[in-house]
Amino acid sequence: MAYSNRVMARFMQPTFQGELAPQAQHRYLQAQVGSLDQGAVLQLSVLVDEQTHCIDAARFKMYGCGACIATADVLCEQLIGLNQQALGDYSAQGIAEYLALPPVKLHCTWLAEEAIQQILMAWQSASLTH
Q1: I need a labelling partner for 38 at 20 to 30 A (CA). Which of 2, 52, 64, 115 fits?
Q2: Beta-ladder partners of 40
Q3: Residue range 83-112: average pLDDT?
Q4: Do you know which InterPro entries this protein is assigned to (predicted)?
Q5: What is the CA radius of gyration of the chain?
Q6: Model confidence over 12-54: pLDDT tens digits?
Q7: Cα–Cα distance, 80 to 100 (Å, whole number)
Q8: What is the DSSP string of 83-130?
Q9: CA 36 vs CA 64, 85, 129: distances in Å
Q10: Residue 12 parent element (H or E)
Q11: Is the pTM of this model over 0.90?
Q12: Structural domain boundaries of the chain?
C-alpha cells in the first residue's frame, strides 16, 4: 500500500513524538487506547495551561503502522491551543482527509477519537475537583 506524501513525511519525521512530563502551572492529562492484540496502541499526553485553560503542549507514543504514527502527529499539532469546549467539538475525521488515508486505515483516526474522549473525560473530571 502506498502512503501519501503527507503520511510519509509525518511518519519519517514526526514532530510531536515523545512524552510530556508534568509541569508547574499546567494540568497533565494522559490517555492510552488500542491494544497490542489489535496491532496499534496510542499513548497521548497533553499539558493544559492553568491560566489560559488551553492545551499548551501535546505529545504521543505510538505502536502501529505509518498511517497511525502520522495521524497521531497531526492530532498533537491540532490539539495545541484548544480549550475544553473546542476539544469536545473536535473530530479527527479531518485528519483522514488531510492525510488522504484509504478506508482500510481509518482505524488510525478511530484511535485518535478514542484518545480525545479519554483526555476530555480526564479534563472534565479534573475541572470538577478544582
Answers
A1: 2
A2: 35
A3: 96
A4: NIF_FeS_clus_asmbl_NifU_N (IPR002871)
A5: 14
A6: 999 999 999 999 999 999 999 999 988 999 999 999 999 999 9
A7: 22
A8: BHHHHHH--THHHHHHHT--GGGTHHHHHHHHHHHHHHHHHHHHHHH-
A9: 9, 32, 33
A10: helix 5-12
A11: yes
A12: 5-119
Amino acid at site 57 = A
Closest CA to 16 of 39, 46, 38, 36: 46
What's the rounded Cα separation, in Å, for the pair 26 and 35? Answer: 29
Q: Which one, of 1, 93, 5, lies nearest residue 116 by Cα? A: 93
pLDDT band at residue 130, thresholds of 50, 70 and 90?
low
pLDDT (tens digit per residue) in 61-92 = 999 999 999 999 999 999 999 999 999 999 99
5-119 sits in which CATH class? Answer: alpha beta
CB within 8 Å of 35: residues ≥ 6 apart: 41
